Amino acid sequence: MIKVEALKKQFDDLTVLESIDFSVKKGEVVCLIGPSGSGKTTLLRCLNLLEIPNNGTISISNKTVVFDKKAPTKKEMLALRSFSGMVFQGFHLFPHKTVIENIIEAPLTVKKKKKLELINEGEQLLEKVGMFEHRNKYPDALSGGQQQRAAIARALMMEPEVMLFDEPTSALDPQLVREVLKVIEKLAKEGQTMVIVTHEMNFARRIADRVLFMDNGYIIEEGPANEVLEQPKEKRTKQFLQLLD
Ligand code: ADP
């Protein structure tokens, strides 16, 4: 589903991703863990082309884009982007639109479907994330957990091949974390391919088929969640996990 080869990303003089290689199979849930500043968010943003890599290759769903000195074409960007749906730390809902309006906004502009049909689909997704009763509310009338569940439904509306989550619970009060993680677990059970940046190690242990540990712009260690989290091989992974205890 996803194949990333020799991916490099620099911000001016700072090299944030040195040379990243990994792949994700269809239906797989991969959690990205690692210390703050190790490049996890940048890697996720590169997959959705919110950041343009300097070098390397990204393939999603058989569409391959090679990054070099030449900027990717608009067509390449749109094609790659259409395969993934992104959920951010800070929800990013449109404040002046209701939940259901937020959810149908993107497909209304890019998909050739009638508004009523989209509202119908949107309501089904809101039902799935436990937000149907809040469909006509504005974001500022919702808790952070409710906003994040609406943001997940919004990303799902575009029927992405892969869902990308960037620390989806880190902006939430502790009592609201569970309701969002439960929705993500439900998607995992349904076979949704996902890449999730998370600090929630118990969640990663439960949900991830594979865990990638990043440090300083490299993937230092990867493997099944129980191996990487319970019996890490690399010194830096051990140190990172010990600090969390
Ligand atoms: P993580 O998600 O692991 O905390 P990030 O990918 O957010 O790491 O950041 C990795 C490094 O890249 C940090 O040193 C950060 O300051 C830097 N960085 C991230 N985005 C930018 C940007 N837009 N401009 C300059 N530096 C950035």
TrEMBL record:
It is a peripheral membrane protein. One of its GO terms (molecular function) is ATP hydrolysis activity. The keyword Nucleotide-binding applies. InterPro entries: AAA+_ATPase, ABC_ATPase_HisP-typ, ABC_transporter-like_ATP-bd, ABC_transporter-like_CS, MetN_ABC_transporter-like, P-loop_NTPase. Its main location: membrane. The keyword Isomerase does not apply. It is found in: Cell membrane. Residues 2-241 form the ABC transporter domain. Keywords: ATP-binding, Cell membrane, Membrane, Nucleotide-binding, Transport. GO terms for cellular component: plasma membrane. It holds the Pfam family ABC_tran. PANTHER family: AMINO ACID IMPORT ATP-BINDING PROTEIN (PTHR43166), L-CYSTINE IMPORT ATP-BINDING PROTEIN TCYN (PTHR43166:SF35). This is Amino acid ABC transporter ATP-binding protein. It comes from Natronobacillus azotifigens.
